[in-house]
Write a structure and sequence with these properties.
65% helix, Arc Repressor Mutant, subunit A, 2 domains, 10 helices, 249 residues, homodimer, two-stranded antiparallel sheet, Four Helix Bundle (Hemerythrin (Met), subunit A), mainly alpha, DNA-binding
Chain lengths: 249, 249
DNA sequence: GTCAATAAAATTATACGATATATGATCCGG
DNA sequence: CCGGATCATATATCGTATAATTTTATTGAC
């Protein structure tokens, strides 16, 4: 590369996170996206002109522009000649995009956001469990059992345990046989994964999540839609309670 | 611009849609996104190297790259040095992204997709109506009434009428007081708008959609959650029936 | 012959500079 | 005070050069 100093820093000399790994445009998009979703860059904020902004970030204009395209694709910003690039109103944000969800959760999510999130889960996932109980294949059931075993063996304190938890929920959504539902739920789950890790760090003795998971599994195994729905409802309520303890401790 | 022929065409001389209006990177993203969502470019497809691909599209490499960043942000493709840019498996697509939804609907949507879509609507929107009936403000109610009046006055055969229909549903979701729900429903509605226009073109005497809309409105006005939920259910069922008639005529 | 380390090649990733285009702002005449 | 022409400015697009990364091929040792 031509004239790029290895530790990117702005004109004032304030160095920022390395952005070392991965693609630069992705890192910049993530950086700006987090600031937008977290309210550091408020709605209506107009960014500096691309040339200046790129220089202050220590990246090329191409990289900044590609980052803006990513944010535009997620509805966070919009650009127009002469007017510049500005942060869109929340109404235009792709709220269900996995990144937009994750960026919001990372930055001290508001009570309203968490309320909305769990309200949506409560609207969708019990019905999804109902459908999974009706439509699941034996193979999916076996995979779910394996995921639960792994989850119990490694616990949510480990990365592998949390991965197993997500795999279980993913399999459940897959069993519901609805691609859109799967997309919705995987967005939500990947966002929630952030908080699950946080819960483990904060709580000294986190509640054992296995009972409600096993209960849900049994109803799906028994092809009992009504009870599967109720079991999922219980599971989400417990997850919400855990999160409230973890966040407002 | 330096050396750009006005009618973009590939090396074989096969001219394609002007892409005249709007931003070029957006047009290219839309073009490729439609082809991906429509299955013309199948999962696993590897695009030509950027330099060649850009030339064959008649755009600069920057434009093509920015288009790829948009598609990447929506999960449709992923790029790696040496390996190239390829179409992701459907599991990775952001199925609830408004564009991804619209691109799928534009290209002869599969029965499975429409089934999934209306199944999701049926899962979410009745509950949303229930919440709207509980939480709506008088002002929102008045706006909804205005939207319905406009919808009746202009009918769904006109652009203004369809806009009023979308406004009504948007207001309803807004009244439900859940930003995530609003995002979900506006994605779905904007995608469905495409088919609403198509229905009007195809059916010589489309069914009058006002009765079920008025019925839904009355229940929200009366703050009757249970009945609002049922009314929404009826509305969606009718919309589904209309669509089936329009598509499989 | 197999496998691991190494070298090579191809493609994206990044940087930089120049020009075109669109749009908001300004100025001016009525 | 308003409408239209003009201007200024930021994005949009183009083009080229170089760096970094990853796959693939090659080589060498055992």
């Amino acid at each position: 590369m031509t004239g790029m100093d290895e530790d990117r820093q702005d004109k004032d000399g304030a160095a920022f996170a390395p952005l070392a790994t991965g693609r630069l445009h992705h890192a910049v998009a993530q950086r700006l996206g987090t600031q937008i979703a977290g309210g550091v860059l408020p709605v209506g904020h107009v960014f500096a002109a691309e040339v200046d902004h790129a220089e202050s970030l220590g990246v090329s204009r191409s990289v900044l522009r590609e980052a803006f395209r990513i944010l535009t694709a997620k509805g966070l910003v919009s650009s127009r000649p002469k007017a510049g690039t500005r942060v869109n109103e929340r109404r235009k944000w792709s709220m269900l995009d996995p990144d937009v969800l994750a960026w919001q959760i990372q930055s001290e999510p508001s009570d309203a956001f968490l309320r909305d999130l769990f309200e949506l889960r409560m609207m969708v996932e019990p019905q999804a469990a109902e459908m999974a109980a009706q439509r699941r294949s034996d193979e999916q059931l076996a995979d779910m059992a394996n995921a639960l075993d792994a989850m119990e063996r490694y616990t949510l304190a480990t990365e592998k345990g949390r991965a197993a938890d997500q795999r279980f929920h993913g399999l459940l959504m897959e069993a519901a046989q609805n691609e859109l539902l799967y997309g919705l739920s995987s967005s939500i789950m990947s966002a929630i994964a952030w908080t699950t890790a946080a819960k483990q760090r904060v709580q000294e003795a986190p509640r054992d999540p296995m009972p409600e998971h096993r209960a849900l599994y049994r109803e799906i195994e028994a092809r009992n839609p009504r009870q599967a729905q109720k079991a999922m409802r219980v599971l989400i309520e417990l997850a919400l309670a855990d999160m409230e303890v973890a966040l407002r401790r």
